[in-house]
Structures are given as structure tokens and as C-alpha cells.
Amino acid sequence: MNFLKVDAVHHTYFTKTSAVTALSDISLEVEEGEFVSFLGPSGCGKTTLLSIIAGLFEPTEGTVTLEGKRVETAENEIGYMLQQDYLFPWKTIEENILLGLKIGNSLTPDKKAYALQLLKEMGLKGVESQFPKQLSGGMRQRVALVRTLATEPKLLMLDEPFSALDYQTKLKLEDLVSNTLKSFGKTAILVTHDIGEAISMSDRVFLFSARPGQLHKTFVIPKELRDETPFNARNHEAYPAIFQTIWKELESLEPAGER
Amino acid sequence: MSPQENVKFLHQKYIQSLNREKKWVRFYQAVIFIVFFSGWELASQKQWIDPLIFSSPSKVWGLFLIKIQDGTLMVDLGYTLSETVFGFILGTFLGTLLAAILWWSPMLSKIADPYLVVLNSMPKVALGPILIVALGPSFTSIVAMGAIISIIITTIVVYTSFKEVDPNYIKVLQTFGANRFQIFREAILPASFPTIISTLKVNVGLSWVGVIVGEFLVSSKGLGYMIIYGFQVFNFTLVMLSLLVIAVFATVMYQLVELLERKLIKNGS
After folding, report:
1. What distance in Å separates residue A144's CA from the closest CA in chain B?
2. How confident is the model at residue A148, as a pLDDT?
3. Where is the ABC transporter domain (chain A) (predicted)?
4. What is the pLDDT of residues B153-164, one digit of tens each?
5. Which residues of B touch A84 (CB under 8 A)?
């Protein structure tokens, strides 16, 4: 049985004046422990698909199952990390990272210790009683990752989590996130519009086309790249070839003259 | 001089200039205070203004001492102050509660919308006579005046701020499986604290208006009654005394709200 199975998902947004099809007939599967990326031009419904997988709303048609159970019923099994950190500015860092446990009524001393330990592993020691405002962008995004991991989700979803950061911080965080997730054996889905990020971090890349959002092609990243950290993968000799392939495929998706 | 000492020196100079500015501000504030009261006293004694109507600081002070000694000022003040505080707390609390109910049920908020607009545009003090007939000419009806004057505007302002909370905070909570009550407690309410506090500041003033008008209409006690009584017997020293006492205590209440603001809003700033 597949870990995550997206089966014939179709989603349409309705407004008073229009009906926009965001996703059309999406089917894909993700294995346990796998790291996959959703790549595509804007308007291809990546974030919609992520929200559906997270069980935030139901698709117009189709089903999403995690370990055979429909995601709408799953509780705290899916972690979701947004584009910006969205730490609660009126809560201390400690209150922020324990938020998920508090909401799920599972704030035991063990889990609290685990969350604080995670914070330490992310290189954020001694910030527990500070407020998000006092931290830099990169630090805040790491705190957001700890908050997401603290509930020990089976599946982690990252919605362009590095896009608001400067390049250097982004490269460092890619390595950190990749290593952390690998060491926990977590399954993760990364949404990005950065080809390099998709290649260097994932095992497979799903390429989406826009209007309506459709699964266009799947790329399997060569094993030698998968075993490297994201930073080293970017410098690996196999990297440019796969980058070119995906680049050309992306170009072919866009009607001439749109950019 | 080493660069470090130089920086230290410049910093000291900067602090000195800040202190100097502060001293000047305080000085001019004191000047305005003294000029106003001594000008008033002088104008009254020289008959530039009618002392019967405008009284004078010395007369007001004399009356103040008399009314402190016989204890009547304290009774009136206590009465009005408790009405205002109750009215203010009730108005803000009920307004916020209504806003929470509207947030809870989008359907209800759509239905209530035109009625809120009507209620908001209505001058609430015009309801005074009805309140007095309905609740009796008592403490209760005056508290109700103090509350009703601020309740609808509080509802509208707070509800608007509830709706404007960044939906991504709600999304974060939803991914943790939060229910609507948890979303309200963890995100909506704390995110709106700054707005609620600023409505508190407005409501301090509004509640005084409601209570004083209420006392104009019915009361036999209180600072509002002092004003209307002073007006009827043409004792404007009494009116001025009441006004000054109101000014002082309205300011104190405002300062207390600011203190509360500093306590409630903590985000490391």
C-alpha cells in the first residue's frame, strides 16, 4: 500500500462571476520516507493541492489518503510549513513551538522536552523566552520548522518555505532541513518555483502545468544527487544535465512571449 | 581621544540633548497651566469676564475645600465614578462579546449588518428617556447609558479587526487541527488586543458622556447632577468644580487604560 495516494483529484473554485478550475485530474503517489517536490509556473495550483493534501478543504472530486485513511479525518499527522514563518508575535518562542501540541491536547513533559531538544538541534539555544520579533528571518523560519516537527507529523509539507529569505540563508536552511528530515526519515512534499531547490532537495520532482493545474511530468533525481546535501548537489557534475532537462520542459509549458 | 571614548562622549551629549528637550516641554506645559489659571483668576477679579458666570479658580478651590470637608464631593464623585467604570467595562465587554458572536457566525453577521449601521448612526443619548422609564431613575439606568453609548461602535470596530487577522495564522492553527474556539483564543483575540485597547481609550471618553447626560436627566447625586443643579441655582462655581473634577478623573482613567495596554501587549518591543 502506498503511504500517500492522491487519486483523481479535481478542484474548482467558484465565485459569483466565474468558476476557475485550479486542479484537473491529479493522481500521484508518495512513498514513506521520500522527499518530493511540486514544481511549476504560478497558477498551476500547487498550493491548492497542498491544502487539499493537508485536509484543509475537500477537493471537488477525488480522494487523498494517507496510509489508507482519508486525510480529512487525520489529526496532527500532517505538518504544514508556510511561505513565511507565521510565528505568533505575541507568543514567546517556547509558546510558539509548543502551539501544535497545545492545540492537540498532547502537551506532555516528554513532548515538551522533545520540542526544546529540536530547538537546540536547530542551533537555537537560549531563545525560548524571546519574542519572534527579536530573531532574524532565518532563525524564525527554523523556529517555524521546529513548531511543525514538534507534533511529530508523518508527512511534512513545505510551501515555498525559503522564498522569503536571502540567498545565503536559503542555502544554509536547505541543508539543515534536508538533513533533519533525512535523519528522522520523514516524508516531505516541497512546493517551489526554484528548479535548483527542487533538484537538490528531492528524490522526485513533479512538474505541473498551469491553467488548469495538471501533472505534466515526473522526474526521478539520479541517486548520486540524492545522496548529497542540497549544497553539494548544486555543485555535482550530474546537476547541470537534469537542470537543463527540467528547464526545457518548463519552457515548453509556457506559451511563447509570456515572460 | 580614542574612537571608543569619542562614541561614549557623543552618546552622553545625545542623552543630554534629549533631557534638555524634555525639560523644555515640561516647562511650557507648566507655563500653559499657570497662565490659564492665573489669567482666569485675574480676569474674574478685574471683572473682564462675568465672575457670576465664569467663577474663578480661588472660588472653585474654596468650594472644593468646603465640599471635601463636609464629604459631599466624595459621595458625588464616588457615585459618578462607579457608574462610569461600570458603564465603560460593560460597554467594552458586551461590545467585544457581540463582535465574537458575529465572528463565530458569518451568517448572523450578514443578517445583523444593516441593523448595526442603524444602531451606530443613532445618537444613543436620545435613548436616555426610554432607558430611565424602562429601568427606573436609578444607578442601573445611568450605567446602562454609559454602556450603550459605546457598545455598538465597539462591536463594529472589534469585529472588523477580528476579520482582518491574517488568514495564514488561522491556516497554521488549522493544520494543527484547531477548532473554531481554539482559533479564536490563540489567534483572533490576541491579534486584536491592540484594537480592543484603542477602543477602550475611546470608550473612556464616551462612557463619561453617557453617564453625565444620564445624570442630567434623572439623578439626585453625582457630578452630572452637580452641574445641572449649579446651572439651575445659577451657582457656576459648582459647575466649574464639577468640570475640573471630571477632567482630572477622566484623565486618570485614560492613564489606567494605557497602563493596561503596556501590560497586555507584550511582544518584546
Report:
1. 10
2. 86
3. 4-235
4. 899 999 999 999
5. 168
Q: What is the pLDDT of residues A18-52, one digit of tens each?
A: 888 888 888 888 888 888 888 887 777 788 888 88
Q: Does B193 touch chain A (CB under 8 A)?
A: yes
* Chain A closest-CA separation from residue B85 CA (Å): 28
B23's CB contacts (< 8 A; 6+ apart) are none
Whole-number Å distance between alpha carbons of B197 and B136: 32
Residue A259 in this model has a pLDDT that exceeds 60 = no
A205 contacts A36 by C-beta, under 8 angstroms: yes
Going by C-beta distance under 8 Å and a sequence separation of 6 or more, which residues neighbour residue B80? B211, B212, B215, B222, B223, B224, B246
SS3 A77: coil
Confirm if A46 and A158 have CB atoms less than 8 A apart. Answer: no
The order of strands in the sheet holding A155-159 is A78-81, A155-159, A187-192, A35-39, A204-209, A214-220
Q: Is the pLDDT of residue A213 over 90?
A: no
Say if residue A236's pLDDT is above 80: no
Judging contacts by C-beta atoms under 8 Å, the chain A residues touching residue B193 are 90
Query: Which chain B residue shows the shortest CA-CA distance from A73?
Result: B177
- pLDDT at residue B1 in the model: 60
Contacting residues of A for B178, CB less than 8 Å apart = 103
Predicted TM-score of the model (pTM) = 0.80
CATH class of B58-264: mainly alpha
- Give strand pairing partners of A10: A61
B205 at A interface, C-beta within 8 A: no
Strands, sheet with A61-66, edge to edge from the N-terminal-most edge strand: A19-30, A4-14, A61-66, A69-70
Contacts (Cβ under 8 Å, ≥6 apart) of B263: none
Domains of chain A in start order, with CATH, are 1-74+186-259 (3.40.50.300)
Taking CB atoms and an 8 Å limit, are A131 and B172 in contact across chains?
Answer: no
pLDDT one-digit tens code per residue, B118-155: 988 888 888 888 888 888 888 888 888 889 888 988 99
Contact B148, B131 (CB under 8 A): yes
- In B152-191, the residues whose Cβ lies within 8 Å of chain A are 166, 168-169, 171-178, 182, 186-187, 190-191
- Neighbour-count burial for B167-194, b at 16+ CB within 10 Å, e otherwise: eebbbbbbbbbbeeebbbebbbbbbbbe
Q: What is the predicted pLDDT for the residue at B110?
A: 92
* Residue A1, pLDDT score: 59
Query: Stretch A63-81: mean pLDDT, rounded?
Result: 75
Distance (Å, rounded) from C-alpha A110 to C-alpha B37? 67
Reported confidence tier of residue A257, pLDDT bands at 50, 70, 90: very low
Inter-chain touch B268–A75, beta carbons under 8 Å: no
